[in-house]
Structures
1.
Amino acid sequence: MIPEQLQAQAIWETIPLKTQQVLIQLYNELLRARSKHPMWPACPVQRSAIVCEESGELARAALQYNFEYKGQGTGEMRAEATHVGAMAMRFLLELDNIHALQTLIPSHG
């Protein structure tokens, strides 16, 4: 192994198992999302809207858990939290490749 791989492996081994499992889950969801939606907006506002949309779905799942399901079953919240995490990862991983929208909308009034 090259030094960077050894360092990464050493760091990975210090991470608690449950955290490792969540990170793997997020990474797998990131790969699935990239495969399903290979195009990713260049605009940071559009990218953040995707993260917000997923966050809204997590909030809906949490509300349903509290008020409809009466505390039974966390699967939907887990799935939506995974989507939020994966999209946040995608946002961060592509942060060096963003472009502000160049079009200006005239102000009326």
2.
Amino acid sequence: MARMILRFKNLKELNIANSWARLNRLVENEGFPPGRMMGPNTRIWFQDEVDGWLENRPSALEAKPPLRGGAKRQREAKKAREARKASAQVDLEELVGG
């Protein structure tokens, strides 16, 4: 049985990667198969390798992406506010109790 061959165009149609930069990040950081060079400018992937990668991806319920940008800053600001509030509460208790 012949293996089904995919090209970059097919990966875009499958919504796996919409740019070469994104594809390179998937290969480097997410374990996506690097594919095979069929010529100097022709890269291919086998359907079964791509399917295997997709099957091994965590479900949305299992994976929680790391916070970046605004969400991370908000979380850190909230922690800092809570720490200041706890510290102020301790200082107030020492003044009242002492």
3.
Amino acid sequence: MTVERFQERLRDLLKQHDDMTQYQLAKMAGVSSATVSKWLTSLKTLPTYPKLKKIAGAFGMTVSELMEEKHVDYTVDGLPQGAEILIENYRKMDRQQRIRFMKMSEVMAHEYPAG
């Protein structure tokens, strides 16, 4: 992915998550607001992998999903009723809430395996 495409992708993600500010993204990625601003405007090289991982996590995705050229729009087709609400609520969680949720999901998957 080019630097320009990364900047475009990051701007698009912030627009899609209109409840997330540059400041909040900075906190979740462990950088300053100035760094996020630089990512959006005057970036010369891509962020390091650890930073990309934190950026991706802030948006509830993997680094691969963040860096893919073509964004995949996931749907809830075939998922149980209410999955759409669960996904929407997940997108609104902060980093710590997402970590707790994922740990809880792992425990539930172990305790209640799919039949």
4.
Amino acid sequence: MTFIELRKLSGMNQKQFCEYFKIPSRTVQHWEAGTRQCPEYLLELMEYKLEQEGITAKEHKMNNIVNDVARTEISTRKILELQSQGMNISEIAEAIGCTKYTVRNRLKSLNLI
């Protein structure tokens, strides 16, 4: 298995893979570009770790979906809370660090505007 195949199998992007294995991003970029070769023993160890921890593309995507849903629920609660305090869409967007478009769409989806 090549390094790129292993990373894709994990379902992680380069940044996530680097953080998971604590590998410098520049090293991974070199491995994927083919300017340097990932040692075979390291490929085997990474594959073993992914297998032992049950990390597959499907599982990783499900974890991301669960995290996104949780973030969405928190954001929606915060938007509703700030709206009840009399804040407008621009103020809410600035307070929670997102765009006005996101706030407007969230309120539309809840039939509040």
